[in-house]
Amino acid sequence: MRLSWHRTGAPAARWVSPSLLPSLLPSPSPSPSPSRLTAAARRGMATEAPAQVKTAGEIAKRIACTQLLLTRWAVEDFLVNRSSDAQDAEGKKRIEDSYNVIQAAVAHPVVAQQFTLLEHRLLKKPLGAWDTEDDLVPVSARWESLGTLLWLLKTLDRFPSPHRAFPRDLLFRTSGIVPAHVDTLTGFTDYFATGAGAQGHVQPTHAVQAAANAVEAWWWRAKAQTVLEMKLAVEDAKHQDAAQYAAFKKSIPSGLVRVMQSIEQAIELAATRSLAEGYIQLVVDKDFGVPADTPADNGAGAAADDDAPPAYVAYRAAPAHRLWELEMQSATRLRALGWYRGLTGWDTGEVKPLNVMNAVWAPANDDAAS
């Protein structure tokens, strides 16, 4: 269901799938006390048996494909945002040489058949043919996919909190893949497919589960933000044409109306539980606390997440570009983890939680917690 109306300053295209509505509100069962949250969550978030967990070799090939796509993205982004630097003869030659190197790399047998249909479509486009909104912006989200994959393969030590982006320069250095040297492609993929990296080089189940729980909490908050903006739009419409408001209100599904009525209370409860579980670092004004700027993990360890409270704002008060970033980061990481678990396609199908019930609303098990 697409909702074409939105609050001023919010991203223009926002979606709420009917299947998500039940997960936006707490379970009707009594909420566990903070002291019981951790144990209860561990039991309540049991996942369905994965269809097919990916091997180290499969993850390595997906890393190679994703990194090559992002290398092409960097060239196209340069043409759009630094076009003046590519106008002289030297600049044009440098861009064309980079393009040719990438095209040769993507044709290498080790990756040529591993790209998705969408990736093939993008990579086959002529140099300079990527559209900003349809191609550049969506592909930019795949930096988070690449970071998640590298972490899954234990080649990246840290999995930043979902409100922090993976550091892009570090991601490219981590794999060691250099498109101009195709032997780095085979060296990387072979090491994890048939070499020493084929065994014991994927994150343990408990680490993947912990990462998924935190990502799910932030993804839930992004979906809740969409509903909150819808509620505000309805309230704003009251002060406009009465006939339009009546028709507008009538078009809203009853299930969504119920969720809208309770969304502020749900956000408050979700923030409390997420703080107790360690999914967020701070509660601000009964909401998830987020830095107002665009922070990247600096690789300095746990202290990197411990910004001073004044640097944080309530999620709902973050600027529109930050709201987009936060939603993109959580959704992209969740999709990558779902792909690893065999629950969704790499770039097809709906993003969905890995847990049967979203980590935010895992029910308590008081008897076992005692």
Low-confidence stretches: 1-15, 28-50, 299-309, 365-370
Number of helices: 14
Shape type: globular
Q: Which radius of gyration do the C-alpha atoms yield?
A: 22 Å
Order of helices and strands: EEHHHHHHHHHHHHEEEHH
Main β-sheet, in a few words? 3 strands, antiparallel
Query: What integer is the average pLDDT?
Result: 82
Region (Disordered): 25-46
SSE arrangement:
Layout: E1 2-3, E2 14-15, H1 37-44, H2 56-81, H3 89-106, H4 109-112, H5 117-124, H6 132-140, H7 142-152, H8 168-175, H9 183-193, H10 205-237, H11 242-250, H12 254-277, E3 283-284, E4 287-291, E5 312-314, H13 320-340, H14 366-369
Helix pairs in contact: 2-3, 2-6, 2-7, 2-9, 7-8, 7-13, 10-12, 10-13
Would you write up a description of this structure?
The chain contains 14 helices and 5 strands. It has 370 residues and is mainly α. It has 2 domains: 15-50 and 218-363, no CATH class; 56-198, no CATH class. It has a 3-stranded antiparallel sheet. Strand 3 (283-284) and strand 4 form a beta hairpin. The longest helix has 33 residues, at 205-237. It is globular and about 60 Å long. The two termini are 43 Å apart.
In short:
Residues 25-46 are annotated as: Disordered. The protein has 370 residues and is mainly α.
Q: Which tags fit this structure?
A:
two-stranded antiparallel ribbon, disordered N terminus, 370 residues, mainly alpha, 4% strand, globular, 52% helix, 14 helices, 2 domains, three-stranded antiparallel beta sheet
